[in-house]
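pasting for ref
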Amino acid sequence: MIRRSENRRNALNAMRETLTRRTLLITALVTGLLLGAGAANHTGFVIGNATPSVPRGLYLKARPDHASYVSFCLGVRHRGIPTYPDLCSPDTPDAPAILKRIAARHQNGSLTVEGDTRRALDSRFLGPVRPQEIRGWWAPWLTERPARRPSREKKP
């Protein structure tokens, strides 16, 4: 009887030690990934998105011809938009840029962009994104599943 409880105690201690090592390893791995992502973000190699207008997650810098997303600033022509002071623009160049999916590329270098929600600040409201407004080209890296795209059709 004593040996059986001693064996159980030893097995429980071994399990705790394994779980503790596993927990520490996972914690170290997650911390390393977050620190790496932060460093990459600081260098402009990766950006994060927490808004619902495109999939939440991390996006890697890409060549323009391989990018499916673009970050851009508002132009002077957008001064009447209520969120203008809070977003990247000629008046606030260090504010957050807007990240959207590229829907179409035009001969003159401008882009039609779209988001996943009906209220997304995209080309439906802003018009095409002009080349001088573009701040970066991006490809999804670690993102949640894309949201269902809203229907553009009007219901009767």
